[in-house]
Design goal:
The chain is an alpha+beta fold. 25% of the residues lie in helices and 20% in strands. The protein has seven helices and eleven strands. The strands form two sheets. The chain has a six-stranded antiparallel β-sheet with strand order 2-1-11-10-7-8. A five-stranded mixed β-sheet has the order 4-3-5-6-9, with no helix packed on it. A hairpin with a 6-residue loop joins strand 10 and strand 11. The longest helix has 22 residues. The protein is globular. The chain starts with 11 loop residues before the first strand and ends in an 8-residue tail after the last helix.
Amino acid sequence: MSGAGSPPGMPLIVLYRQAAGLNREIDPRANALGIDTRWLVRSGAAFGFGRAPSEVDIAVPLMTPTGAPEPSMPRLAGRISQLRGRWAVENRSTTGTKLLLTAPGLYREITRHSPPELLPRPRQWLTLRSADADVEHRFHLIVQGPTAPGFPPAPHPIPPPDAVAPAPPDARAEATTTAAAPPPAWSPGDARTLAAFCYPELCGLPPRPRDRTRQTLSLLNRAHDQANEKWLERQLARLRRDAAERLGTDLRGEHRTPLFVDHVVQHHALLGPALRSLDEEFLATHRPVKRSR
């Protein structure tokens, strides 16, 4: 058990998204920003999810995109309740199902053998993956405090919005480490490129294989062609060199990308305006999408 990010006695906001089609996903913003259902979990209540959860105050059945019970999930995959006044997550499955607890700079796997895991941040994602990894059931867990967005005082689901909606302000949690060296002197263009390249990690989503070239060009509204690929290679080569000098290690090559991404996430505070700009552009150009469950 670890973490001390959830103040005692505070309600828990839960935002749910069924992220589907991830094996073909290029632009991650729809599933990062979209909210299907919301709940406010008050102190003393238990929140449970799985194929057919029971014995909890708020039960969330996990469904496939076609509306059938999710066959790869146990009846009760996980339970969230308070432990000594702080919110904690338990893996209640009897199988090898893992719960992934993530935020920028944070990655933890919670198995059925793990002790209850205290929420380490005011805001984090709890994710379950389908057997083929094409669907993720994402719960954005926000411990409500003085600066958290207000929600109506109700222990039951708030009706889901009719449109893809942005996550609450400041939903990206603080990174776990802060670089001791002076911050990079990224230009607004650099910040925008890095925000697109590292968008999932800056949002705190769990890791998965990605075509970062296509993802970055898509978020930057650039065509996926040879000219733009070469442009992006030049930009990233320069930014990698700068990061390598700061870290004292070679960051060239795809196999060094995780270290480069970690470096960017450590300086996520510099990328706030660029991230907000990418989000606002997406929401301004995509029509409302109704999600039925």
